[in-house]
Structures are given as C-alpha cells and as structure tokens.
Task: structure prediction
Amino acid sequence: MTQEFILETRGLTKEFRGFTAVDDVNLQVRDGHIHALIGPNGAGKTTVFNLLTKFLPPTRGEILYRGKPITGMKANEIARLGLVRSFQISAVFAHMTAMENVRVALQRKLGTSFHFWKSEKSLEHLNERALELLDEVGLREYADVLTVEMPYGRKRALEVATTLALEPTLMLLDEPTQGMGAEDVDRIVELIRRVAKGRTVLMVEHNLSVVSRLCDRITVLARGSVLAEGDYQSVSRDPQVREAYMGSDAAAEEEASA
Amino acid sequence: MATTQQLTPAMQRQRSARLRRNTLYLVLIVLGLLAPLAIYPVFLMKVLCFALFACAFNLLLGYAGLLSFGHAAFLATGGYFTGIMLASYPGLTPEVGILIGTLAAVVLGTFFGVLAIRRQGIYFAMVTLALAQMVFFFFVQAPFTGGEDGLHGVPRGELFGLISLSDNLNMYYFVFAVFVIGFAIIQRAVHSPYGQVLKAIRENEPRAVSLGYNVDAYKLVAFVLSAGLAGLAGSTKTVVFQLASLTDAHWHMSGEVILMTLLGGVGTLFGPVVGAGLVVSLQTQLAQSPLGNWVSVILGLIFVVCVLSFRSGIVGEIQKMVRKNFK
Result:
C-alpha cells in the first residue's frame, strides 16, 4: 500500500531548544498529485519543508520516499533521487546568464563537474537542451541575460527551468508565488500546472486562490501539527481551519452572516 | 558556414572575449620575456613568486568565496621542504625539490581543508589561522628549520641537471615559466566545468545543494588547489633566494596576501598579480628610503583607502570602467 504514496512522513517532529516547531506530523503525498501545505504564519510549513529536503535534521520521526526511508540522507543526495526543491526567495545564480543557470543543473549528469583541467567549452553541447528548457518556461529570449537583470517573476520561472533540468519525480516548491504581482502569479500557476504533468508536486503556499486552482489535496498545518487534510472543498469548510486560518473573528462573522 | 548549431549572441560575445583574452596573454608573455632586460631580475622573481602566491589565494577567496587566514603555512611549508631537500641531498635537481615542496603543501592543504571546510565565514578564517599558527610554532621548534635564523645556503643547482640556475637570467626564465604554469592552472580551473559549479556555489550555496552538488567536496578541491599553488610559490621562492625563513610562516604573511589580493582586485584573474607587484615594489622602494620604518603604516593606509573608495581593487575598477565606457 505504501507505493501509492511517493512521500510519507511518520511522526515527524522538530524541536528547537524546547520549542516544538513541528509536532508529530504524518504527511502522505500521493504519486501524481499536486499537494499543498498551507497554514497561518508560524504554523511550521517551512520547517516541514526543510525537514523533507534535509536542510534541517528532524528530532524524531521518519521520512519515506517510495516506501524507503530517507531520513538520514544528505540534502544533495536526495536531489539525486529526484526530490528537488525550490526556495522562498528566488534561488538563482545571479551573476550567470539564464542559460548558464540551467546548464549548471544539466552538467551534473556529465560527471565532469570536478574536472578543473577541462575547458568549459566541453559544456557547450548542453546548450541546446538548456534552450529547450528555457523555452518550456517561456524564457528563451532571456537565455543570454544575466539573471540579476531579470524581473522577479522571470527569475522564479528560471528556477523552475533549472529544477526541471534535473528531471525530478517530486518537485517541492516553497511559496512559488510569494511577492509576485497578479499577472506573474497567473503565469506561474499555469507553469506549475504544465510542468506537474507526470510529476508530483508538494508546495507550500500562502495564496489560497492559487491553492484552490492547482491542488488536488491540501494539508493544513497549525502550531506545528496537522489540523486537517482533504481537497480544497472539504478543507475550506472545516470550521477549525477557518478559525486557525482567518482568525476566530472571521469565522464568527461568517457564521453570523450565515 | 552551414552549421546546424546556431551561435547565440552570448556565445559570440564569449568567443570574442576569449580571443581578446588570448591576445592579452600573448602580449603579457612577450612582456614577461623582455622584462629582465629593463628591470633587475631578482626583483622580478620576487614579484612573480608573490604574484603566484596571491593568485593561489585569490582562487580560494575570489572564486570559492572562502577567506583563509592561514595561507602563510602553505607558502612556508613549500619553502622549507624544498629548502631541506635541496640542502640535504646535493644530487637533487631544483625542479624535483620544488615538486616535493609543492606536494608537501598539497598534503597539508588537504589536512587543513578537511578540518576547516565545514565552517563558514569568520569561523573558517579562524580555524585556518589557528592551524597556521600551529605550523608556525612547529617550524620555530623543529631542529631542521634553523628556527629564528632560518634555513640558509640552499643551492640553486642545475635545472634538469643541465642549466645552471646560479645565473640570474636563467633563474628568471625558470621562475617565469613556473608562474605561467601556475597561472594557467588557475585560469583553466576558473573556466572549467568545475569552475562553473564553484561559481554556482559562491552565488547561492543552498541552491547548489538542492541541485545535488556536494558543496563541501567542491570547496575542498579549491582549497587543496590553492594550497598546492601557494606551496609552489614558496618552493620557487626558496630556490630563488636560497633561503627559507620564518617570515613566510608568520601570520603577517597571511595578512599580506589578503592585502595584495584585495588591492589588485579579488575575483579577477590579474588583480592579485597587480596587487603583488604593487606591494612588493612599495616594500622595496620604501625600505631604501628614509621612510623605511613606516612601510607597514603606509601599506595599512593604502589598504584602508582601497577598501573605502575602490572596493573591487585596481583591476576590478578598471574592468568596471571598461564595461561602462566601451559597451
């Protein structure tokens, strides 16, 4: 039965000097789903995210990828398994061109990344694939632009292209639409929908309209624990979720008007 | 040409930049070959040794983003090993002595690197400083280094057993060749598949991790390369001056190489060369003038002015100017 879940956590817990940021979280992400992790500020979403991607070691609990434990692995090792994360603040290599950004991800598979005696011309045959990937996220005309000079929304798209270069089976996106204007949000939502085909996506997201448009399944975190889980309809009706997410006032108002 | 591969503007730019760079290298090599006709060769050799040392340091600081405060240890280890070898085994040719010194620095660099690389920023600098101080005290105490007096009377010998290096001009061309090789290694490392990953790590380390790169291993390679080249500089210097002294192991030397690199331009290939040239010239000129006792103060002042007003160093500022005005 475990096989239908691509990623699973059992009793995942993270304590920081007595403060429990993540408390006994059991998360199950189904293969092929777009799964969202939502919750109010300080709910522990980003901590869960960092635990899953091994940027933080868990205090207790287990993480399983396709039924196999990956709890003790290093961050760069799980990337090799096909779990690739993005970051809350756009994570690009600022003083490299868009093409070079993607190429750095592509070149790992060549196995020449320690070859300090080889010319970088040996990477040029990757350019074609890099351009394809840039095309896929609508950035072909930015190929030669230094990333630092690109607009914010485009940087996030570039991040997706770089992630795709690794052909991930599971993409972990940390607030992909954070700090974006409405137009960019629409573009990124479309992009995620497109690249999620044949993949699994787990995303932390604040923007509920994005979640409602994209996600198959939603887990709501509050104060480090799972509050509710289900599709958008059922989760959004859950009174506990309403209270945690919008504050008790909003829930009360809602009830009063109903 | 009906090639299927299209050249993007950036690739064309890169190619023309490569061409310009190669022309520049050619001009500089010719200048380097002609230089001893106009300038005292021993002075030039000193500049070249320190330039190589600074270039090695810059590989670490400028391209891997790691500030080592213990590079004197590698310079001195290279120097002492070469000195001891050449002094104790008269049959040894200088190039073998230099190779042994360099290897010793590589071994020490691997040891330092494994211990220090996990730390970041100031902690990394402190660990390297502490380790370098241990090396310094080892050289003070060890019976074979001559302690405070230093190791004297290292023979220059005959290169490959053929060419006498006691002639300053022969010696100069050998040092120049060593420098060019060292510089070429750095130039290539920066523009290699490895250099690309190193750049990515410097730009955004967590992202490089999330792409599956074991960043510590990449940093360690940079550290060992840098240590080895610093050792090469120290070894060569010992052959030139026929002595190895504690000055090279002192933490002042670790500071001086930072000064040279920042002054010339960190993260630029030629910056450290210019910085080393400037610092060595100033030291030599001032030592002969009435201001002899003020060398450190004057260098310190220059450093402060440099850091406050032109942060990218001499070469860095020139590059900026060229970019602004000719594009």
